[in-house]
């Protein structure tokens, strides 16, 4: 009711200023280009399609950053508890440096001081596996689909999504690794069956042709968000591991388990219940922090909709309201998924 009253007041105020309030502008044609997109885009498409393109860009960098920050934070958090003085203090120095510098400064540092100093396409740095790195970004090999891909790739995707579910099913006589292979092995040939050929990036004249280009703006935002969040996740991991009673470790070692087995099979499963709630907050911060991509011209929601679209349409209230609703919806969905997972882990622990 409060939101409805607020929208009514905004509409009334706009009418008093002889301004029409509405979202009909989303059906109008655009006259600008979006340099990086995951779906087809052309000048003249509607503002609604521009919203979809920028939304996918935001979701892409957010998902990439969440995965990278989780893995890096887990590694740094474990290093923080190492008995080796050098390893422990390297992790401490990383955490103190990253946590005490602004996130925006880190994103700009990666974009200006690192990526913009790379060589041109003619002197591209080979990364292995056919990937190339230069000032224009990272060029990766791409798979060209055949006519069979539309039928076999969805099935392969479903098999991969089912692996975490099958992992928890109790099958007598099947070890944990074997249960995953039951779905992973058929998924791989299904994926390969949908590939017609591989398009490799190669130097052609003064430019790189073929493959997929990962623009430097995406790399800079991804690195800045991932490293910044990883420093906070590392401290969450350290605190969660320390919350497990030391008797658990001593009992496991007395049974003859190796240190990495103690960590992976005894300590981390119990610490996971402590990690999930604060880690959820870090995931939400990553999603909201993706708006900082506007500082390096990454075409995400804020850069395009709160910038180009707002200036061209003069719909300040409508564009900002759309941004608020979109970010609120994304964060509520992520929060619901993480809360469901947290309840699931807690029930298993109880």
Query: Total number of helical segments?
Result: 11
* Class per helix and strand makeup: alpha+beta
Low-confidence stretches: none
Strands, total number: 8
Architecture of the largest domain, according to CATH? Orthogonal Bundle
Strand proportion, as a percent range, falls in 5-15%
Shape, please? globular
Helix content: 55-70%
User: If you consult CATH, what is the topology of the largest domain?
Assistant: MetI-like fold
Describe this structure in words.
- The protein is an alpha+beta fold and 350 residues long.
- It has two domains: 29-99 and 217-348, MetI-like fold (Orthogonal Bundle); 121-214, no CATH class.
- The protein is 65% helix and 9% strand.
- The chain contains eleven helices and eight strands.
- It has helices at 2-16, 47-80, 85-99, 103-114, 149-167, 176-193, 216-243, 246-254, 259-289, 301-313, 316-349, and strands spanning 125-128, 131-134, 137-140, 142-145, 195-199, 202-204, 207-209, 212-214.
- Strands 1-2-3-8 form a four-stranded antiparallel β-sheet. A two-stranded antiparallel ribbon has the order 4-5.
- Strand 1 (125-128) and strand 2 (131-134) form a beta hairpin.
- Helix 10 runs antiparallel to helix 11 (316-349).
- The radius of gyration is 24 Å and the shape is globular.
- The mean pLDDT is 86.
């Amino acid at each position: 009711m409060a939101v409805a009253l607020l929208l009514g007041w905004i509409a009334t105020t706009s009418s008093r200023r002889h301004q029409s309030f509405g979202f009909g502008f989303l059906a109008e044609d655009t006259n600008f280009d979006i340099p990086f997109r995951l779906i087809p885009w052309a000048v003249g498409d509607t503002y609604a399609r521009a919203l979809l393109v920028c939304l996918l860009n935001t979701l892409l960098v957010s998902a990439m950053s969440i995965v990278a920050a989780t893995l890096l934070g887990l590694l740094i958090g474990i290093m923080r508890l190492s008995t080796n003085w050098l390893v422990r203090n390297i992790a401490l120095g990383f955490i103190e440096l990253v946590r005490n510098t602004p996130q925006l400064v880190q994103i700009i540092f990666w974009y200006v001081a690192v990526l913009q100093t790379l060589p041109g396409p003619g002197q591209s740095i080979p990364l292995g596996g056919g990937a190339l790195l230069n000032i224009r970004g990272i060029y990766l090999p791409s798979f060209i689909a055949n006519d069979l891909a539309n039928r076999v790739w969805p099935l392969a995707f479903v098999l991969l999504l089912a692996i975490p579910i099958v992992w928890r099913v109790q099958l007598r006589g099947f070890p944990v690794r074997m249960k995953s292979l039951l779905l992973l092995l058929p998924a791989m040939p299904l994926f390969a069956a949908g590939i017609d050929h591989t398009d490799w990036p190669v130097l052609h004249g003064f430019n790189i042709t073929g493959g997929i280009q990962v623009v430097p703006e995406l790399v800079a935002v991804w690195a800045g968000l991932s490293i910044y969040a990883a420093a906070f996740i590392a401290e969450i991991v350290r605190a969660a591991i320390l919350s497990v009673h030391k008797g658990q470790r001593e009992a496991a070692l007395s049974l003859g388990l190796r240190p990495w087995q103690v960590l992976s099979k005894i300590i981390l499963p119990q610490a996971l219940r402590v990690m999930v709630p604060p880690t959820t907050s870090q995931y939400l911060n990553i999603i909201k922090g993706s708006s900082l991509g506007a500082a390096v011209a990454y075409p995400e929601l804020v850069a395009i909709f709160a910038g180009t679209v707002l200036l061209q349409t003069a719909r300040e209230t409508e564009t900002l309201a759309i941004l608020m609703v979109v970010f609120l919806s994304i964060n509520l969905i992520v929060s619901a998924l993480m809360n469901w997972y947290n309840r699931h882990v807690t029930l298993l622990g109880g």
